[in-house]
Structure formats: C-alpha cells, structure tokens
Design goal:
Blueprint (H helix, E strand, L loop, with lengths): L1 E6 L4 H12 L5 E4 L4 H6 L7 E6 L4 E6 L3 H11 L5
Parallel strand pairs: 1-2
Antiparallel strand pairs: 1-3, 3-4
Amino acid sequence: MKVQVFSMEGCGGCEVVKNALRASGIKFEELDFFQNDELVNKYQVRSLPTTVIHLLESHDVVTVGGARPQDIQKIKAIVKGEAH
C-alpha cells in the first residue's frame, strides 16, 4: 500500500492529517500541490488536504479529501484494511 498526501505550505488541515497519520504510524509521501501538476491532474485533486491511497492488491486508488475527524478515520480504516 502506498499513501500520498497532497498539501501545501501554510495549510492547517494538511498539518492535521499529516500529524494524525504520523501518530498512527502510517507512512506516507508528502506531495506539494503546486509542484506535482501531473499527479494533481491524474488523481483530480481539487482541495487540500487530499490523501490518495494505492491498494496494491487490487490496483485500486482511493481518494479522501479533507481533515475532519471522519476523514482521518476513513484513511486509517482503509490503510488497516477495514474499509474502502
């Protein structure tokens, strides 16, 4: 599984998501929204933060936008294989 978090400097919600993932021991790649145009377009990132989760077994990609508690719970559940 590969987890990518699209963010930008000064984005409070982005920090919330990244800190929550770190606290949960979830490894992720941080991608700057403005420096990754190709990936932003590929995954249709329209708001920040956006977390993209690559499920290696099925080759599916799950996108979760936002930093609300339910967004973070959804990310954690997907990474732990509980939902998607």
